[in-house]
Amino acid sequence: MDMSSKKSHSMGKVLVVDDDATIRLLASEILSQAGFHVKTVGDGTEVEKNIDEFNPDIVVLDVLMPGMDGFATCAEIRAREHGGNIPVLMMTGLNDLDLIQRLYQLGATDFISKPINWQVLPYRVQYIIRSRQTLSELRRTERELREHDQQMRQYIDRLPVGSILFDRDFGIRQWNPSAERIFGYSEDEALGKSALDLIVPDKSRMQFIELWQQLLHGKRDVLSTNENITKDGCTISCKWTNTPLTDESGVVVSVVSVVEDITEQNRTWELVVQTEKMLTIAGLASGMAHEINNPLAIIAQLLQNVERRLSAELPANQDIARELGIDLNLVATYIERRKIDTFLSEMRGAVKRATSIIDNMLHFSRLNVTSHQLTDLNEVIVRAIELASNDYNLRKKYDFKNITIQRDLDSNLPKLSVNSTEIEQVVINILKNAAQAMAQEKTASPEIRLWTGTEDGFALLRIGDNGPGMPPEVRYRIFDPFFTTKEVGEGTGLGLSVSHSIITKNHAGSISLDSEPSKGSTFSIRLPLV
Q1: In the chain, what is the straight-line distance between the N-terminal and C-terminal CA atoms, in Å?
Q2: Which residues, at least 6 apart from 152, have a Cβ–Cβ distance to it below 8 Å?
Q3: Among the listed ranges 120-134, 149-163, 238-252, which one has the minimum average pLDDT value?
Q4: CA angle 131–132–137, rounded 5-degree value
Q5: Please, how many CA atoms are within 13 Å of residue 315, restricted to the half-sphere of its CB?
């Protein structure tokens, strides 16, 4: 009995239901000898109770029984909350196909014909139990796979970086929310589309195809930094990590890519590099400015003395002229006819211009200690526009009267703690540069747009134009001291350098430039809110 009990745990439990006591006895004996733990009942009404208490692995059920027959009993088993998982082997002496079909419709697992082949019965029962166990394992595995797939999907959806699955032909098969945020396309818009058509600019197609060939030939974890395009046509910088996925034979069937938008990181890095560059050059500029300032002051003073000592108005000049027999009026005529006075005037102008450059260099090289006051940025901008609009000169070849000025200024912008004169200077510098660039390139319908608002604890000012824009080699150097694209004598190359210093050093803000050839330029200035 003990051995039979031990065996029963390995072979399973069988509940035999039949109104014939002989069949119950034979079934119990045969199945017990085969290692099953068997319980028998003679009526279908006892099945439900025994299922709860005995918890069988299979029910061997007679079809034709008085009272509650096998049809009703099978239906009741299947109606239970967990009854659908219990195999039911029906025993029947009937060979009617309609009856057999009805058995299967009620949920019978299989049937065995009477008279029963008792040697076959244990194998039949064992097969059904194992099939049920296998099915249960498959269902559990399927459930676990579904749960794992759901967890992986949630993980991918919550990734802070874009995750994209491509097929071999660049087709997009998976597209997470971060990819949607980066590129602007929803999952429905992206799935099935080719990456070449959706996010790869024309100029980068060959680079993309070459990288793809490396992946298809088995190169793993290919890293790249590319320019990509968004749904609204913007160009962004993206960092990609691409990994090929292979089948059992090692053939690449798809590529999973992780993408990060590093456009803002690049801009921040450019600002850091620019600031470091400014700090280095500022020290040189300060020393040069002081060294040059002294001889300039001497030259200015000596020029003033030369003009005074040539003047016929001063008594001291008249006394020495009489002593030497010189007619100062004739000397004045000589000076005028030989244009010496013009030379002296131009020398004064050159000294004044050099002094102005030195002042800008000193301004660029040191932190301004002038006081800041709460100021309405919009008022400063309006005043700067008015001052710049008066800057008309035929020699400069531009006139603000021919430029459309668009203003979109936030009336709810809080006051800022700034030096209004310096901010005004920055705005005027940018406005003049825009006007000069558009005039030089003869931009049709020239326009300058000014916009203010707030963003992430900063006041934001954007000044954009529809001018010629700048190539990268110019854009990267635009804040460098003494760098200018203007003709000799038309610019010092310090205007934007000084503007950069004012914003970053004097106001703890930032200034950046977005510009592409033929697409205009936009300066973005961020100033901390109080």
Answers
A1: 89
A2: none
A3: 149-163
A4: 95
A5: 0
DSSP letter assigned to residue 60: E
What one-letter code names the amino acid at 344?
Answer: L
Main-chain phi, psi angles of 131, to 5 degrees: -65, -40
- 323, 458 in Cβ contact below 8 A? no
Q: How far apart are CA 79 and CA 82, in angstroms?
A: 8
Q: Tokens for 143?
A: 């459930």
Q: What residues pair up with 261 in beta bridges, in sequence order?
A: 238
As a whole number of angstroms, the distance between CA 16 and CA 406 comes to 92
pLDDT (tens digit per residue) in 86-139: 899 988 877 777 777 888 888 888 888 888 888 889 998 998 888 888 877 887
Please choose, from the candidates 172, 177, 227, the residue with its C-alpha nearest in 3D space to the C-alpha of residue 197.
172
DSSP state of 338: T
Which pTM value belongs to this model? 0.41
| Residue 464 β-bridge partners | 449, 522
Query: Residue 454 belongs to what H/E stretch?
Result: strand 447-455
Beta strands in 386-446 (DSSP E): 404-408, 416-418
pLDDT tens column, 277-318: 555 555 556 666 667 777 888 888 888 888 888 888 888 888
Provide the 3-class DSSP secondary structure of residue 247: coil
Rg of the chain over CA atoms, in angstroms? 46
Instruction: Extract the tokens encoding 308.
Output: 């005074």
Q: Is the peptide bond before 315 cis (omega within 30 degrees of 0)?
A: no
Query: Is the separation of the CB atoms in 220 and 250 below 8 Å?
Result: no
Q: Is 77 helix (H, G, I), strand (E, B) or coil?
A: helix
Residue 278 tokens read as: 């400014």
Q: What is the mean pLDDT of residues 78-87?
A: 73
Q: Which residues contact 286 (CB under 8 A, 6 or more apart)?
A: 361, 362, 365, 366
With contact defined as beta carbons under 8 Å apart, do 287 and 202 qualify?
no
Sequence-distant (6+) residues with CB within 8 A of 381 are 407, 409, 427, 450, 452, 461
Q: Is the dihedral of CA 156, 160, 166, 171 positive or negative?
A: positive
The answer to whether residues 461 and 469 touch, using CB atoms and an 8 Å cutoff, is no
Q: What is the DSSP letter of 397?
A: T
Looking at 182-191, 271-280, 456-465, 517-526, which range is the least confident one?
271-280
Hunting for tokens 């001889």 — which residue is that? 295
pLDDT per residue over 28-38, tens digit each?
Answer: 999 999 999 99
Q: Classify the phi-psi angles of 482: left when phi > 0, otherwise alpha if psi is within -120 to 50, otherwise beta.
A: left
User: What's the CA gap between 352 and 288, in Å, rounded?
Assistant: 17
- Secondary structure letter of residue 19 according to DSSP: S
Give the residue ranges of DSSP H helices in 159-229: 177-183, 187-190, 195-198, 205-216
